UniProtKB/TrEMBL annotation:
InterPro entries: DHBP_synth_RibB-like_a/b_dom, Sua5-like_dom
Protein name: YrdC-like domain-containing protein
TM region(s), chain numbering: none
Ranges of residues in domain YrdC-like: 31-68
Region of interest called Disordered, as start-end residue ranges on this chain: 71-105
Organism: Pseudolysinimonas kribbensis
Annotated Gene3D superfamilies: DHBP synthase (3.90.870.10)
Length: 105
């Protein structure tokens, strides 16, 4: 029997207990391989994990978030800081319009 969680039918594991942590990690890995989503708690919020190289899993994540897939455009200028690498801020900072788009942004 899995530990109870707030959501019916969804197991929860006490990550401060080594045995439960190991069991939870093994089940999470298996779920990700099946293309399912896994909710991972952090110290402040919950993260949602999916197999990034499986299109159905990514679509499942986007559906759960109510989002759509759209390429992120990022500046590839070496002089721009990562936090300011949007194409617009790059044009304003260094005058270039060099931007790349792709899955990693």
């Amino acid at each position: 029997m899995w530990p109870k969680s707030r959501i019916a039918g969804v197991p929860a594991f006490d990550t401060t207990d080594a045995a439960q942590l190991l069991q939870g990690m093994r089940l999470a890995r298996a779920a990700l391989k099946r293309g399912e989503l896994v909710v991972i708690p952090t110290d402040t919020v919950y993260g949602i994990a999916a197999e990034a190289f499986a299109a159905p899993a990514v679509q499942r994540l986007l559906d759960a978030k109510g989002a759509t897939a759209r390429p992120r455009r990022r500046c590839s200028c070496p002089g721009c800081r990562p936090s300011t690498r949007s194409p617009r801020s790059c044009r304003m900072r260094c005058g270039r319009s060099s931007a790349s788009s792709g899955p990693a942004g």
